[in-house]
Design a protein that fits this description.
The complex is a heterodimer. Chain A is of the alpha+beta class. Chain A has 11 helices and 9 strands. Chain A has a 7-stranded mixed beta sheet with strand order 1-4-5-9-8-7-6, sandwiched between helices. Chain A has a two-stranded antiparallel sheet with strand order 2-3. By secondary structure, chain B is of the alpha+beta class. Helices cover 27% and strands 28% of the residues of chain B. Classes of the chains: A alpha+beta, B alpha+beta. At the A-B interface, helix 5, strand 1, strand 2, strand 4 and strand 5 of A face helix 2, helix 7, helix 10, helix 13 and helix 14 of B.
């Protein structure tokens, strides 16, 4: 049995050496390696052997089989190569195209910022998009009849409460999650809250009724304005490079006191003034401020013991600046010519 | 709002070397946003003084004249339509290339066959008045060729303030309030608002006006002063110039004076024609009450509008606009001057409901200081007296006061200030800043007791944080250092939801090579009806942008189909996915408010679509994506498809299944009915799957970590076998039988599906690789044969399956 195998091996290998064309090679394959070839015949005889012998010869047969198959493949490749050798192979030809998938540009930006804030120890929290007036306004120190509650700005949902009033809205800002986060986690707290927000606004290339914001806050025993500046400076450096400067100026938001705007040096002109920054050298990016004591109270945090700051910015605007997108409607368009660029 | 630099200088010293951009920046960094500034002369660029040399009739038009006008550099031929043009006049000539304040661009042109190179301007064309009767004739001594702005001595600088940045500062809606800010920032003195000779306040007669306020809540103060012996002429030019500078059109002296005082003090005023009014009642509007307002429009007054009436009829919409029935005109000799404080919320609501925002309503809705009307009426009277020296106050000034402005002192301490700002600010500086802003300051050791002025106390300064803001902004946010917060390390709980979202996105866009889309949360009734979906249980928006965006989506399908339609002409055979919320009217997980109710359900869904010409291929492909997703998320998990009892409205009959994972239904998959897809404008076939993200999250939390298994020591026996069954038999049922049949039958892998005539009517065949394996020995052919024989029998008994012979 072993001898048969050895003999077969030698026969096959010497025949293989002489082969120069594919059709002879094919004949050789049929004769020795096919299902009804000589190797199979020998293997078929294995069952007639004793158990011990069968095991021993079986192992040898496997080794021989693998060797023969390997040598066969090598020879085949060699012959094929020779066959093609009169053709010149161009090493600069690109490989076949494998299409890739694409994440939405806002997903990419959101992740980048989430990861950045994670390095500063900020958690991420998601909040409801359909929100009550309580969390969207009242808890944020926006009393009834405040201009911010205007129907012109906020989408109300057609469900009336027991008093016959509409008190559900599509959240007009991610700040709705501030008080939810305070209630859930208490102080101290470092949290960012990215998400989808809505404004009742006609759309054009610069206006969208559905867009994304990222809200952030930090609450602790001695958190102050100077700390806020530090964090916001880091945000600027993250977004626009280590030379980026922050400029802050007063701005009123009901849920912070003092309230401020944050501007960063325009990354396109390095603050020299260009079309994008309207020749001011600054890009208005942030709204921020120290959290109003009424908001802390609504979140169950004692403003005499804790203080904090909050900030927020629009992700669509950041993405537009980053990628040079000139029409905000593209984000929700589902247009693959747009999406395939990210 | 526009600010005139000259006007500000009436009250505060601004260094002459200070550039307009520096002032603009100063206000922007410390007070409110200055959107832009411009030199007033810029609006009269290319307008010069000309001398009319000759006037001839136009040969082709009776009303037009041909003029020759000397503008020093050249003599222009200008066609003019004004009846008052005459030789020898000095006139304002807009040269070719000029853009007038009303937007008119002057070009070289031909008018009825005659060349015209420029325009002789009328007052209204220059934005200096409403006179369009004829051209504006300038004084004889006007210098020919001089620029018109130098002729008018227009040397003012105009700053434009962003109104939104003023929304919490009612006190900044006039020049005086801004002057106070500037004086605080520049540390220069602020002049008092009113310097009046008390003697002129003494009434000349004993006429009485009865004023009644029906509801104290709607009007906290009402001052009415009857003034006789006025001649309501045109305003003097200085007054007109000031108003023009801040973009207000001069009308007549009395109206102009009320406007002037409003733009100066921030307090809106009104004048009524006195002859028509015996008494004044401040009340709320009645049902179906209407009034023709000054702009000539008949307006139905909404409920809860504050109305000024003469005892019976409305004569003004309080705080918004006067009525035509009591308007002053050029014949007016006697007026009632109104200076009042109306309820901000009422004015705001009425202004919204009437869709009428005026300079007055914008101010009232900010909540004004009830002390302001007194100063304002006296200022107006001072101006009236200056322009009409014969004017006199007809009787006692009526002053109804419904307010009790108790201003609370705000205590805070210096250490608190330092702790919140993060910088030490000297006591002296704190005191100086607050006092310059009009606050009263008392210092007692470390304690600071601050009393805000009435114009700040009405609304925006009530707590110590408000005082902190005043100090911080005057110092300048830029002058506060950036300090790294001290913090201790704390454990951050893992956000599993976010991690899972990211994994899903990465798998589908990575090895799945799909595209991620974001769609609106809103759908239209039309889109739903195209999909046979009943919109009646959808949540609606009260105030949608359009019918296209009126309902809250309950599935990601309509949006994804819209994406397919948009892209079908640019791409073929592709797939998309979206991860987003849907909205149902039933209660969800989020708490609504402190009462413990819940918000409507708004869970996340993962939606996938595959589009292509071959319906079966789409469906198959979509399943491959799901298999990729689930096996990437949890390598050991089994994904199954089972028949659905309630077919979704969008699905093609029989081509839809529930997605089961780990024994739990997580979503649905199917082919979108072709007719519906066509309704949607789709040329291709579509397969769609929607998965409840929450279920995936639950799985993610419950599926145990994959445990390592030793590779089998003994060889497996693989048998290929093909079964023929009735085409109604579902694969998943059959497959379950195979994999649950015998412990040694460890795997049943489908490798071929065939349906064809060779099998006979209504038949199909499945070919499987069946893997038999034991962990403790090498299986013999006989053992396998035995199991397989039983298996074939079982398949026959349960499904009438036949083994297919080749």
């Amino acid at each position: 049995m072993k001898n048969k195998l050895q003999k077969l091996r030698e026969e096959f290998l010497s025949a293989l050496d002489k082969v120069t064309d594919l059709s002879t090679l094919r004949d050789l394959e049929i004769k020795y390696l096919s299902r009804k070839g000589e190797l199979s015949n020998i293997l078929g005889e294995l069952k007639d052997l004793s158990l011990d012998l069968r095991k021993e010869v079986g192992e040898l047969a496997n080794v021989v089989k693998q060797e023969l198959q390997m040598r066969f493949s090598e020879t085949k490749v060699d012959i094929e190569k020779k066959h093609d050798s009169n053709k010149q192979l161009d090493p600069t030809i690109p490989g076949g195209k494998i299409e890739r998938g694409h994440l939405h540009p806002l997903t990419l930006l959101k992740r980048e910022l989430e990861d950045f804030f994670a390095t500063l120890g900020f958690q991420v929290m998601d909040g409801p998009e359909l929100e009550s007036e309580f969390y969207n306004f009242e808890a944020l120190n926006v009393p009834p009849h405040h201009p911010a509650r205007d129907m012109q700005d906020t989408f109300y949902v057609d469900i009336k409460n027991k008093d016959g009033e509409y008190d559900l809205a599509m959240r007009s800002q991610t700040s709705n999650t501030q008080v939810r986060a305070m209630q859930k986690y208490g102080a101290p707290l470092r949290m960012i809250m990215p998400g989808r927000v809505f404004r009742s606004e006609s759309t054009d290339s610069r206006h969208e009724h559905t867009f994304y914001q990222l809200e952030g806050m930090m609450i602790g025993k001695d958190i102050n304005f100077a700390h806020m500046k530090n964090i916001l400076e880091l945000v600027g450096k993250k977004l626009y490079g280590p030379e980026t400067k922050l400029r802050m100026r007063p701005k009123f938001y009901p849920f912070v006191e003092p309230g401020s705007n944050g501007e960063y040096t325009c990354f396109l002109c390095q603050g020299q003034g260009c079309r994008v920054c309207k020749y001011s050298g600054w890009l208005e990016i942030l709204g921020c401020g120290l959290i109003h004591p009424n908001v802390l109270r609504a979140g169950g945090i004692d403003p005499e013991k804790y203080s904090g700051f909050a900030f927020g910015f629009g992700l669509n605007r950041l993405a537009m600046l980053k990628y040079g997108i000139d029409d905000v409607r593209l984000f929700n368009s589902g247009d693959m010519r747009f999406l395939k660029q990210f | 709002m526009y600010l005139s630099l000259n006007w500000l200088k009436d009250f505060v010293k601004i260094p002459s070397k200070m550039k307009p951009e520096e002032l603009a920046q100063l206000l922007t960094l410390h007070t409110v946003e200055v959107e832009s500034w411009r030199a007033q002369s810029a609006s009269f660029d290319k307008v010069v003084v000309g001398n009319v040399l000759s006037v001839e009739p136009h040969p082709n038009a009776d009303r037009l004249r041909l003029t020759k006008v000397d503008v020093k550099k050249e003599i222009l031929s200008i066609v003019c339509g004004a009846p008052n043009v005459a030789a020898g006049q000095r006139v304002a000539v807009a040269l070719v290339g000029a853009t007038l304040p009303n937007g008119l661009v002057i070009k070289d042109t031909e008018i009825r066959g005659e060349q015209s190179s420029g325009m002789i301007c009328a007052e209204d064309e220059l934005g200096l008045g409403n006179d369009h009767e004829g051209i504006m004739v300038l004084a004889k001594h006007a210098k020919v060729g001089q620029s018109f702005s130098s002729h008018l001595l227009l040397n003012d600088i105009i700053l434009e303030i962003d109104n939104k940045s003023l929304s919490n500062r009612g006190d900044l809606w006039g020049h005086y309030g801004m002057a106070r800010e500037i004086s605080t920032l520049l540390k220069t003195p602020l002049l008092p608002y009113l310097k009046i000779d008390e003697k002129i306040l003494i009434p000349s007669g004993k006429e009485k006006i009865a004023v009644k306020i029906e509801d104290k809540n709607i009007c906290s103060r009402y001052i009415a002063v009857k003034i006789n012996n006025v001649k309501n002429t045109e305003s003097p030019s200085w007054l007109k110039e000031r108003l023009t500078a801040v973009n207000v059109r001069p009308i007549n002296a009395l109206v102009d004076i009320t406007n002037y005082v409003m733009f100066e003090s921030g307090q809106p005023l009104h004048v009524f024609e006195a002859d028509k009014i015996q008494k004044i009642t401040v009340r709320l509007s009645k049902d179906d009450e209407s009034l023709e307002t000054l702009d000539g429009k008949e307006r139905l007054l909404p409920k809860e509008t504050i109305v000024i009436s003469d005892g019976s009829d409305a004569i003004a919409v309080a705080g918004i606009m006067g009525g035509a029935n009591s308007a002053v005109n050029e014949n007016t000799t006697s007026v009632i001057l109104e200076a009042a404080t109306f309820n901000a919320v009422y004015v705001r609501k009425a202004s919204q409901r009437l869709n009428l925002r005026t300079d007055a309503s914008m101010r009232f809705e900010k909540t004004l200081d009830p002390n302001l009307p007194e100063m304002a009426w006296q200022r107006a009277w001072q101006l009236i007296k200056e322009i009409f020296p014969e004017a006199e106050i007809a009787g006692e000034v009526v002053d109804v006061q419904n307010f009790d402005l108790e201003i609370k002192a705000i205590p805070l301490d210096f250490s608190w200030l330092k702790k919140k700002i993060g910088k030490q600010i000297s006591r002296k500086e704190v005191q100086s800043i607050l006092e310059r802003l009009g606050f009263q300051v008392e210092i007692n050791k470390n304690l600071l007791i601050v009393t805000p002025p009435s114009w700040r106390a009405v609304k925006d300064v009530t707590i110590k944080e408000d005082v902190l803001e005043e100090i911080a902004r005057v110092i300048g946010y830029d002058n506060i250092p950036a300090v790294t917060p001290n913090s201790t390390l704390s454990f951050l709980p893992e956000n599993r939801e976010l991690l899972l979202e990211r994994k899903i996105q990465d798998i589908l866009s990575g090895s799945g090579r799909l595209l991620e889309v974001y769609n609106y949360s809103f759908v239209s009734e039309v889109a739903l009806s195209k999909l046979n979906i009943d919109p009646s249980r959808y949540l609606k928006l009260v105030n949608p942008i359009s019918e296209q965006q009126a309902l809250l989506r309950q599935s990601l399908l309509p949006g994804l189909l819209q994406n397919l339609r948009l892209n079908q002409f640019n791409y073929s055979d592709f797939g998309l996915f979206e991860l987003g919320r849907i909205f149902l009217s039933s209660p969800g997980e989020y708490v609504k408010d402190e009462k413990g109710d819940f918000l409507p359900y708004q869970g996340k869904r993962l939606g996938l679509v595959v589009s292509g010409v071959d319906e079966n291929k789409n469906f198959d492909q979509l399943k491959s994506y799901l298999d990729l997703l689930f096996s990437s998320l949890w390598s050991q998990i089994k994904l199954e498809y089972t028949a659905l009892e309630n077919m979704p409205a969008w699905a093609k009959e029989g081509q839809v299944a529930a997605i089961y994972c780990h024994g739990k239904e997580v979503g649905v998959i199917g082919v979108v009915d072709n007719k519906l897809a066509n309704n949607f404008g789709l040329k291709t076939k579509v397969a769609f799957a929607e998965i409840n993200f929450k279920d995936l999250l639950l799985l993610d939390n419950s599926v145990p970590v994959n445990q390592y298994k030793e590779s089998p020591k003994y060889p497996a026996v693989v048998r290929d076998i093909s079964f023929v069954v009735d085409e109604k038999i579902l694969y998943n049922d059959f497959w379950r039988l195979l994999v649950n049949f015998h412990p040694l039958l460890v795997k049943a892998e489908l490798f071929d599906v065939y349906q064809g005539k060779a099998l006979g009517e209504d038949k199909k065949s499945w070919a499987f690789h069946l893997t038999y394996q034991a962990t403790d020995k090498t299986l013999t052919a006989e053992e396998v044969d035995l199991i397989q024989k039983d298996l074939i029998q079982a398949c026959h008994d349960r499904f009438e399956a036949q083994v297919r012979d080749f």
